[in-house]
Each structure stands twice: as structure tokens, then as C-alpha cells.
Amino acid sequence: MEGTFGACLSLISLNLNMLSKVKNFNILFVYSYSLEMTKIDASSVTNMNNMLYSCFSLISLDLSYLNTPNVQSMDYMFTFCSSLIFIYFTGIDTYNTYSMAGIFYECNSLKLIDLSSFTFNQVNLFRFFCECKSLTSINFSKEYKYPDSVNFMFYDCSSLTSIDLFNFDFEITGDISFLFFVCNSLKSIELNYIDTFSIVYMEYLFYGCNNLNLINL
Question: How far apart are CA 100 and CA 126, in angstroms?
């Protein structure tokens, strides 16, 4: 169903409860401006890459009903949703998801996000919150095992004052370059609980963090 509802600029509501066999939601709603999705059967979907790419006028989104037990990739799922302020994720299943690269890339209006329902297990988190410049709070409350890549994860998250990575296990993570690049509101960070044995690359890790006064390594 790649691009099926792309550029449907006046589309407001959509019922997709009869799609139990569809596996590909790639760029499904690209450039669709304002949309309320209800009763989507995504039980067989494996690919949600770019699903809501550049839905510029989308302000809030409730995905609590979205069943995603087989989704393997959510790369750039909400990229350039520049007006998106709120996403409700409670109940989403990411146990089998191995890549979420750039999932919130340039969601410039997103302020708060609760990822307590997410499970990360050897997941690619490259550019995860990259350039989410209004983001002030992130709820990471589960144990996240072995992220495969976290470089650029918080790149230019210029409104974040603190980041709690206590629940992350970096045992096999090799690259944390640009992780906090230009997080210029960040004041302190605790990293002394992180296993750095496998980390090879740390380029520009704290570059531009000009308000950071305490780093505990």
C-alpha cells in the first residue's frame, strides 16, 4: 500500500479495519495534512517506514489502538510532522521492531513524549529524536537492551534540560557520536552507569552543550 493515501490534502478521517493481510504501510499517508485514523488493522504489517512522512498539519495522534505485533521497521515514521505536539502510544507493541531510525526526525513542535510502552531490544535508534527542538521531557521507563545505534539520537534537542538513560543497556553499542550534539539547554547528565567497553566512536558527543556544568562518567 505504498503511498496509497499520499497527498490527500483534505482527508480528515479514515477507517482501515479491513486490512488484516496488508504488510506494507510505507509512506502510506505522505503529505496528508490533517488526519484522524480509527480502527486500523495492522496485525500483519511489517513495514511502517515513513508512514506519516511530512504530514505537516497533523497536531495530535492517538495510536493506542494500533496493533503492531509484527512490525519490524518504523524508520522515519513521523519525519517532518512539524506541527505534531502530542502522540499517544499506550499499548503499542514494538517487541519485534529492530529499527526506528529517525522516527521523530524534525518533529519540531513535539514537547512531551511517553515511551513507557516501547520495548527496545537491539534496535537501531539513529536520529531517533534528531532536531526535536521543542522537546522538554521524555519518559523512558522500561529496560532497553542493547540499542544497536544511538548516534545523533538527541542531536539538536535544544530544549532538553535533562536526559535519563538509566534504563538503557549499551553493552554492544559501538557508536555514540553526536549523541548530545548542540543540546544547549542540557545542564547535567549521569553516564557513570553505562558500560562503555564496546564503545568505539564518541566524536562530538557533547559538542555545543554550552550550559552543561556536570558530567558524571
Answer: 7
Q: How far is CA 202 from CA 99, 150, 179, in A?
A: 21, 11, 8
Distance CA 131, CA 32 (A): 22
**Side chain identity at 1, as an amino acid letter?**
M
Residue bearing cell 550534539: 181
With a CB cutoff of 8 Å and minimum separation 6, the contacts of 116 are 139, 140, 141, 142
Give CA–CA dist 81/102, Å, rounded: 12
Cα separation, 125 vs 154, whole angstroms: 10
- pTM score, whole prediction: 0.85
Residue 124, phi then psi, degrees to nearest 5 = -80, 115
The C-alpha cell at 141 is: 521507563
Instruction: Show the cell assigned to 110.
Output: 513535539
Q: What is the pLDDT of residues 154-212, one digit of tens each?
A: 999 999 988 888 778 777 788 889 999 999 999 888 776 676 777 888 899 999 999 98
Query: What is the residue type of 164?
Result: D
